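Researcher: Next entry: NB-ARC domain-containing protein (Panicum virgatum).
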Amino acid sequence: MIWIYVSANFDEVKLTQKILEQIPECGHKNTTSLAGLQHDMNKFLRKRFLLVLDDMWEESEGRWDKLLSPIRATEVKGNVILLTTRSLSVARTTTRTEADHINLDGLDEQDFFAFFKRCIFGDENFQGQRMLLKIAQDIASKLNRNPLAAKSLGSLLRRNVTAKYWMRIRDSDEWRFTERKDDIIPAQKLSYNHLPYHLQLLFSYCAIFPKGYRFDKEELIRTWIALGFVVHERKKLEDHGSDCFDDLVDWSFFHKHEQYFVVHDLMHDIAQEVMVKKCLIIDCLDLREVSPPLAILESGLSWHTTNKALNGMRTSKRN
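Model: Predicted structure:
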């Protein structure tokens, strides 16, 4: 089984490298030659395989064919490629018929509420205060049975277990901005809006990094400190920055994966949304309109530019 996280950064060379890294017999050299990598693919991909390409956004049929050409040429029969995407156009590009699509709904309603209670109370069988459970059920009905939304809102609710606070969350105007029946952005935005301001600042900075970026905790903390985002009168800045990072993990804004941390794509969308008037983001396909320079100067934040064409490299220029 080969599992690859694709996200928005579709790069045939890097994806082929990642595939080869998961073939035990292949001791391939780190090369940027797609032809050389595909030669190794033909040589070492000799067993039947399941290839999972997770969270794909690339709609170009030509790039998709280029990635799969050595896989399609293999003599081994019975191989399966499983692709996940949030884009129907990607699904249509990468499959032959509509019958090949499997539309994933949310969790079963009963299972979802049990999971939501675990996120809030640490116990899926919690049967405590009826009023709190009724409010939690009302909020759960707005989350489209999505586990990520349950984790985010669960982290928010467990910090203040009072009916008054929970009703404020339930009755928030943010829910009115739901665009689709499976949209969970309002739930994520609510979680962001209820972060303390200093944590909002630290998290929103992550908008300048590409989706799927692997964050090193210590490196990110040093960057926050260098930018003046971490301030404390008594604690060492490194210790306070570490506490802030741990808080963001606890709020489900970062997730640990092996030795590094990642921001879920939907959380990344929130970071870019809140920074849209303070940050210019260039991904070669989409140039977002930003406020005049005066507004950026007044914000006290930095200009930042990201460009996926530079292989994920980032450049920044302080005002």
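Model: Note for the record: Residues 2 and 22 are 6 Å apart (CA to CA).
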